[in-house]
Amino acid sequence: MARRRVESGPCERSDQAVSEPRKDNPPAWLGKRLPRYTSYPTAPHFGPLEARSYGRWLSDLTPPKRASLYVHIPFCRALCWFCGCHMQVTNRYDRVETYLVALEREIDLVGRRLQKGIGVSFLHFGGGSPTILKPGDFERLMAALRQAFTFETMVEIAIEVDPRTVDQEKIESYVRTGVERISLGVQDFDPTVQEAVNRVQSFALVEKMIATFRRQGIKKMNFDLIYGLPYQSLASVTRTARQVMDLAPSRIALFGYAHVPWMKKHQRLIPALALARDNERLEMYNAMARIFEENGYVPVGMDHFARAEDELAIAARQKRVRRNFQGYTTDDAEVLLGLGASAIGRLPQGFAQNTPDLKAYRQASAAGRLATERGRPFEGHDLMFGEVIERLMSNLEVDLEAVATKFGAPLSVFTDSLERLATLVQEQVVTIDGSRIRLFTPHRVAIRAVAACFDQYLGQSQTRHSRIA
Prior knowledge:
Blueprint: E1 47-48, H1 51-60, E2 66-73, E3 75-76, E4 88-89, H2 93-113, E5 119-127, H3 135-148, E6 150-161, H4 168-177, E7 181-187, H5 191-196, H6 203-215, E8 220-227, H7 234-247, E9 251-256, H8 278-294, E10 297-300, E11 304-307, H9 311-317, E12 322-324, E13 327-329, E14 335-339, E15 344-347, E16 350-354, H10 358-366, E17 372-377, H11 382-395, E18 397-399, H12 400-406, H13 415-426, E19 430-433, E20 436-439, H14 447-452
Parallel strand pairs: 2-5, 2-14, 3-4, 5-6, 6-7, 7-8, 8-9
Antiparallel strand pairs: 1-17, 9-11, 10-11, 12-13, 15-16, 16-17, 18-20, 19-20
């Protein structure tokens, strides 16, 4: 039965001509290009990292550290024109099979370097589209992971789902292998918008698929939505938000579309003149967020929402939410291991990323080498500033003195950052009470501008980032 809804009122653009806000005196932070801070330092500041260094990092991990796994499947059946992921379109399944051979070898290489006693608490399959895998291949991959790593009893296994490539047999395979959460790429339900981004999937298709998952016992569901897509309007996104309420997902991620055609050339297929202006995007976000909150969803960080009984909502109330490359999470493991081409991991020593080149990835695995290509060892005050940024992004507040004390540093280490915050204080974006900083504006997405004041490396990398709102 559909959940009763409460109805509410009604990876950005590069063309300056279509990015100017229509309203007079828009907030100064609106439209700025800044990181989403799923890591710190952010990926543009990664540099070359030898596979041997990553191998040492793995070997140096000691129990009782816990780990999470991210497994990247970089293939899709069709290209969504908004996509910012490392992926390839293929209709040849033999390419997927060849990749899986290399992936299983990497799993073995990483697993053999870990000491016994390091348990896995979270496992997330991302892409691309992991649902491109045939049931037998997915089960074989799960078997390889369980053989290489020690799974904790309460491990949460999640998979990103493309509703166009899922069927009953695949869902039954997920149930057999312990999957308990799906992350569904809804994006938008408006047919005109779907056609404009080459992602056509009807509400009826998604509704039927959701019902099948629930009948099979998989009831934890995350929906990914995107605002700022071509031809979206305030009316159309509110319709989508209301339709989402009828499907009653556990969690919702509400992302702003990042239009970066100079980096992702296929985004040139999206008509720039059909994209909303910054202030219109902000109105879309606020309208959708209002519908979610009025229907009982708890806002988490800047762009996630969870039902009140969901673990993420509980963690948000207790200020235990974490932020990583998958967004907001309850995962508190110290180690995130990235497996697959382009996958990024985080260890106590720093970040490590595999090569995105599929040929180079296969060659490394075949030669018995880790496919690490880039990364960033932590140095100086990276961990301390990273914690400030994560607390801001997750809780929308931070106590600078508490963080400084934790890292054995004087509060004066944040002097320059506080000076950069002065404008945002004047604009009533944040308040500062002693050493505690809190978001003040009702626009949660503005927290990116606050976090950026503590980014010691931002510099000239801003063209690599999406706009706020």
